[in-house]
Amino acid sequence: MKPNTQQLNDFSTQVRRDILRMVHAVNSGHPGGSLGCTEFFVALYQVLMERKEGFDMNGNGEDLFFLSNGHISPVFYSVLARSGYFPVSELATFRLINSRLQGHPTTHEGLPGIRVASGSLGQGMSVAIGAALAKKLNHDNHLVYSLHGDGELQEGQNWEAMMYAAAYKVDNYIATIDVNGKQIDGSTDEVLHMGDLRAKFEAFGWDVFEIKEGNNIEAIIAGMTEAKSRTGKGKPVCVLLYTEMGNGVDFMMHTHAWHGKAPNDEQLAKALAQNPETLGDY
Amino acid sequence: MTNNWQKLWLKTLKLWVIINLLNNTMKKYTNTGNKDTRSGFGAGLTELGQKNENVVALCADLIGSLKMDDFKKNHPERFFQIGIAEANMIGIAAGLTIGGKIPFTGTFANFSTGRVYDQIRQSVAYSDKNVKICASHAGLTLGEDGATHQILEDIGLMKMLPGMTVINTCDFNQTKAATLAIADHHGPVYLRFGRPSVPNFTPENGEFQIGKAVLLNEGTDVTIIATGHLVWEALLAAEKLEEKGISAEVINIHTIKPLDEEAILKSVKKTGCVITAEEHNILGSLGESVARTLSLNNPVPQEYVAVQDSFGESGTPDQLMEKYKLNHASIIEKAEAVLKRK
Description:
The complex is a heterodimer of chains A (282) and B (342).
Chain A: H1 5-26, H2 31-36, H3 38-48, E1 64-67, H4 73-82, H5 124-137, E2 144-149, H6 157-167, E3 173-179, E4 182-183, E5 186-187, H7 188-192, H8 197-203, E6 207-211, H9 217-229, E7 237-242, H10 265-273
Chain B: H1 2-24, E1 35-36, H2 37-51, E2 55-59, H3 63-66, H4 69-74, E3 79-81, H5 86-98, E4 102-108, H6 109-112, H7 117-125, E5 132-136, H8 154-159, E6 165-168, H9 172-184, E7 189-192, E8 197-198, E9 214-217, E10 222-226, H10 230-243, E11 248-252, E12 255-257, H11 261-271, E13 274-281, H12 286-297, E14 302-307, H13 317-323, H14 328-340
Parallel strand pairs in B: 2-3, 2-4, 4-5, 5-7, 6-7, 10-11, 10-13, 13-14
Antiparallel strand pairs in B: 1-8, 6-12, 9-11
Helix pairs in contact in B: 2-9, 5-7, 10-14
C-alpha cells in the first residue's frame, strides 16, 4: 500500500534530520541541495518508482534512477537506506574512511542502490539515456529517471545528451531539473544566466512539464504522475522542479550559503528542533 | 597441346608465388598481404554481431573510418549513431551496460581518450562499467591530418586509470582476435589500432590472451619489446641484427596493461638488456611500464624507440615514422647502443 501524505511528510522530516546529522558529523557535505530535493526523493522512492526487492546492477524489470548532481548524496543515501537498500545505521559512516557512503555516490564500494558514480557534473543524462536505450533493447517497459542541478546544465555534455534524446526519441526517460536558482558562487542568474530553460528544452525537442511547488509532496506526486503519462509518446520528458535550497530549515533557505557547508553544534540543534524525529534517528 | 600450355602456366604461377613469398618472408613470419588494423576491428565486430546479441556499437560520426559499416547494416537496432558528441557517447555506453549490454564505442584515438578523459574516468572506469573503447587512427601513422588528430599520449592516459585494460594490436589478424576477446572480458578496455595498411603476419583466427605476451623470435643478446605497428619493424630489425651476429629476442606486447611482467623478466634474465618500441610519446609509454618492471626486479640497460616528448605533424605515415625514428633502422641503432651499455 502506498503511504499517505502525512506518512510521506514524516518520512521527509526524518530524511532532513539524517541529512543535517550526516553533514554535521563530518563537518562536510552539501546540505542545501539535499534539503531542497528531499520531498522529490521521498516521492520517487516511496510512491512513483516501480522497484524490485533487493538490488541488482542491471535493474531489468524495474524503474531506474540516476543522480547526476552527485554532491547531494546525503539525501540520496538517506532515502536509499530508509527504502531498504542498506542498513540505516550505515548513514553514520558518511564520508568516513573505509565507508561505502563516499562523499559523492559511487558503485566502486558496492553500495546497493547506486548504478553509476557521479559528482563530476554533467555526465548523468548521457548515462540515463544509455540505460533507457538498454531498456528498449530488452523490451523492458519500465522508466528511467534522473535528477540534475540547474547550475549543472552549464556543462556542455547535457546539451549533447538533450539533442540525442530528442533526435532518437528516447521517450522512456524523465529528466528532472532541480531549479533552485543557486550554485556555489551565487545565483545561477549571476554566475551564468541560462535564460529560459523551458524554451531551451522545448527547442531541443523535449516535452517539458513544470512543478512549481517542488517542496510540496502532493504537488510532486501529481506533477510526476503527469510526467509519467507523457512518456512513450516519441519525446523525452523534462520536469522543471522548482525547489527551495535548504528547505525545512529556516536559516538555510533563501541563500546559497549552505550549498556545501555543514552546520555547527548550535546550528544543528536549531535545525533539528525544526524537524522533530519521526521514524527514529540512525 | 592445351595440357602443355596449362602446365607451363601453372609453373609460371608457382614461380610467381614463390618469388612473392620470398619478398615478404622472414625466416619465421610471412606477411600475407598488407591490411589496416582498423579493418581487423571491423571484421571482429561483424563476427561479434552474429555471435553475441548483447554486443552493441556506438560511433561518433566516423562509421567508415572505424569500419563499423557491416555491424550497422546487419544490426541497425544495436547500432547507435551518436553524432559528433564523444562525451555523450561514452556516457551512453556506460548506461547501456546497466541493462547488460556490451558497448563498443568507435572514434579516433584522440577523441576516444583525451577529449573524454573525465567521462571515461567517472562514468566508466570508477563506475566499473563494461565498456570497450575502440580507438582507430592512433599515433603518427594517421598521417596528413597532423598533430591535432595524432594522439601520442593515449596509452599513458588510459593505463593510469585503475581497472582499465589497455591493448595495442600489431596487425589485422591480431586486432580481429583482440576485438573478439575483449567482448568476453568483463571490465573496461581501451583497444588501440590504426589507419595504415601494415603487414599481416600473426595467425588467422589465432588465440588472443589478454595480458599474455607473445614471444615472436628467440634470441640471447638483446630483448626487443614492441607493441602495435612497431612489432613488424622489430622483426625486421631482429633479422638484420642477426646478419650482424647479434641475437635479438622479439616480444609482442599487445596488452600494455596488465603487463606480462613474467615474460619480460624471463627474457631479460637471458639477454641482460632491452629495447622498447612503440608509436607513442616516451612519457607514459609501454617503455616506462617496462622500465618500472625492471627497476623493481632486475635493473638492466634500456633504450626507447618512441616519440621524444613532442607532437606530431603532417606527412605520409612512412615519412613520419622515419622522421620520428620509429622504424627498424632506429631499433637496430638503439640495440647496438644498448649492447654497449651491458
